[in-house]
Amino acid sequence: MKPDDKDLSFHIGHRERLRQKFLDDKLADYELLELLLSFVIPRRDVRPLARGLVEKFGGVYQVITAPIGSLTKFKGIGRNTAIFIKAIHKIMMVGYKSSLDKATIFHNEKILTNYCLLLMAGKTKEEIHILYLDDDRRLLADDLHSIGTVDWAAAYPREILKRALELNAKSIVMLHNHPKPNTSFSTDDIKLTEQVKDLLATVDIDVHDHYVVSGGIVYSARNMFLLK
After folding, report:
1. How confident is the model at residue 203 (pLDDT cuts 50, 70, 90)?
2. Distances 98 to 7, 30, 88, 116 between C-alpha atoms, Å
3. 153 and 179 in contact (C-beta within 8 Å)?
């Protein structure tokens, strides 16, 4: 057997062992990423690439949620591979959102916080999203309200009211991110929450909560007793 044939045989065997380890639920985190990469990069040993990505970004979750521009800057990750990785991210978001569509958020609020984490992961600018809920607190719509700068985004309470009435929403969840890690609600965030809450109260629409996502943490205005 030629050396190239031996390498190919080992390569094929290794990937089959990866698949079996997956079925046996015995994969290490980097091996799970390696398995995913093997489907989009079929003719290379992707073990070093998987390990390098995990080391660079800090974990498999951080790789999946990294901005596509950051992924393509990593040696060995081309555009198609980056799109494949981001498709996994999108699938995760679709799964959580589907759960929010079908069941009240009170049944498993962890689903909502996980969705918020995935939605805001890798964002380098502040975004404000408004989640509109029906009378059973099921998700009607997730609207991107505005995109701002690294530390500010504009909010328009009357536009939120208008959209809530269009959807016949009975409550909303406000959501925005702080790209700077581990920063909770600012004074302006609290004032905005109160402004929106007071305006919506005039038509009997409730602000269920306001979340800030920062540094992989979801801060809840309700849990922090910031919603009067």
Report:
1. very high
2. 44, 28, 15, 13
3. no
Q: In which band, very low, low, confident or very high, does the pLDDT at 1 lie, cut at 50, 70 and 90?
A: very low
Q: What is the CA radius of gyration of the chain?
A: 22
Contacts of 182-186 with CB under 8 Å at 24 or more apart are 182/214, 182/215, 182/217, 183/212, 183/214, 183/215, 184/212, 184/214, 184/219, 184/224, 185/210, 185/212, 185/219, 185/221, 185/224, 185/226
Mutual angle of helices 79-102 and 109-120, in 10-degree steps: 150
b/e per residue 61-83 (b: at least 16 CB within 10 A): bbbbbbeeebbeebeebeeebbe
- Say whether pLDDT at 12 is over 80: no
- 165: tokens are 């009435």
pTM of this structure? 0.81
Cβ atoms 167, 140 nearer than 8 A: yes
CA quadruple 193, 186, 220, 145: dihedral, nearest 10? 50
Alpha carbons 57 and 53: distance in angstroms, whole number: 6
